[in-house]
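ingest -> validate -> predict -> emit
validate: passed (alphabet ok, no gaps, 438 aa)
predict: started
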Amino acid sequence: IPANIHCAMKRPVEPPPAPSSSVRRRLNHGEPSSIDEDSWLLGYVLSYDQHKGYGFVESPAVPEGDVYFQRAALPQEAQARMKGQVRGLEVEFTVFFTPDGKPRARKVRVLAGARALPAAPPPVNRHQEALSALPPPPLSADIVEKMTQFLEDTGGTMDFGKFTREFKGFKKQQLEPHFTLTPEDDDAGGRWQISLLGVSPPPLPRPPPRPEKDPAARAKPESAEDVPLGHFEGTVALFDSFKGYGFIKSDEVAEGDVYFKRSELPLEAQNYPRAKLVGAKVEFDAMLTSHGKARGERVKIIEEPSQLDNPDAQLNGQASRDRREVPEVPAPPLNDEAVAEMTQFLEENGGAMDYGKFANAFTGVKKLQLENHFTLVPESDDAGGRWQITLPGVDPLPPVEDREGVPSSPGPERLPRPSSSRPIQDRGREQKRSSLDG
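emit:
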């Protein structure tokens, strides 16, 4: 490497001199600004873009021009606002100047009660406005000749909509000097026809009038083929107040239960709930349909159901609708092992005890299964109250309130369950499974 180049490479590069404060604050015309950088000035937000993160403030106190500010200079609550919510806000700010003399805001504060200006309307394209105001250009002779030939091939007249599919982009104002445009009805916004000059458009076809229905056929009931069976009495066996129909059970009608609609009930009974109709005694006229079913008409209530005869009368609302008749299945008899275990349990407890405590030790057992092996005695005349279970020949305990030395407890005392005690149904299944396996 030549010595002169080597020396040049070792020579340190001198940085440019830093501009003085007077140079930094010098304006384009060379005069320093007289604005104090620590003073707060008044102005309003001229523009702001929350996506780009900057805006400008206009202030008469800064003759150098609009003051640039960044999003970080705004208060925290104003930084996320849209430009329409910030534009026009009255603010106060502190200013400093860049080395090239441009003003920038260091801090910007929104004045209390300041409101943003309404958004500016979009700019108007004056050139587009002027073009839209001009009339469309006249058709050329070549285009008019093609249109005339097209109309002649279709009989001289046709629907204007079909015509515009062939010649797109033309306006009626351009076509009127060469062709005849006729609306199909008095409404100018409806369908139009276009025809050659001197050719009359054909009359529009009118839809044929609808044939009037025969009044006799309209009044003909749907049940014209039904055969009267007579006048009968029966009991409402089922009624669905939501679907609006029910069935009547009558021994006098051999065809089975009689179907009836809600509209066949008296007017005052059509809004009755299910509980007020099921079990009611009624009289009705029966008709035999073409399907061989009995249908009731003119249903009249003779006697409303009582609560004793109709348990559904004690229910209402959804409970009544959800009620379903479940056939009662007799409980299976107890096996010898279960009876022996229960007998030993009663002997260990004195031969008599509260039935609730007994049921806690032997879950799933019904009274019907126990009656053949033990004695069940109610403590009072109310069968829905407390019961006792005893071995045959053992006297029951006195009522709870008459027992001495037995403190009353807020709830039934749970006795220790025998080690081999399991639900009777489970043991029955095991025995049945073992017998099948054998």
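The chain has a mean pLDDT of 76.
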